[in-house]
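ok so dumb question maybe but i'm new to this and my supervisor (M.) told me to 'just get the structure for A-type ATP synthase subunit D' and walked off. so i did the thing. is this what she meant?? sequence i used:
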Amino acid sequence: MPSVDIRPTRIELIKTKKRIKLAQRGLDLLKMKRSSLVLEFFNISRQVKGMRENLRQEVGDAIQSVKMAEVIEGPMMMETVAYMSANQKVDSGVKNVMGVKIPELTMSYSQTVLSNVYRTISVPVSINDSIRKFERVFQSIIEIAEKENSMRKLLHEIENTKRRSNAIENILIPELTKTAKIIRMHLDEIERDTFATLKFIKKKMERKEGAGEVV
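this is what came out, is it supposed to look like this??
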């Protein structure tokens, strides 16, 4: 803060000290927020790691189940069931995680002749098992995509919070502290000048009084 903009008054000093306290409180809140965001980021990261490991196993099991169903029921039956199966649809919404807006994905199915009840009764067990396993694979992929997107959003917010806290800690607070110091120095100098002036006036008055008594 340039010294030409500083008004060396007690009111300005009080205001500057209040701004320092406010900036310090804001800095503390930003650091707390950043710590919470980092904890949430690593928590989701651990979840994604475990989910990815499970997904590999789920994909392998699903592919193996399709091969087994094709051997047991034949390609024609597989194609017939696939034709009657529902199309999966992914809808997106928004949820709030510590002030960060994160997309929330939900999966739904369109209406089809092949309902859950009909599938259980009429579809061969091997094919039905394959359908269930691939539905689980698709659900896992959606969940992983949602969490990875959350991680990107959290990481972006962590960086923004870090920049803001660094600006307050390394620029704003030092400038305000310097301003308060300059004002304090000016006030002290004014006090010294005032004291010296009063002392000079007092001595001058004492000399006049002394001269009057002599006369």
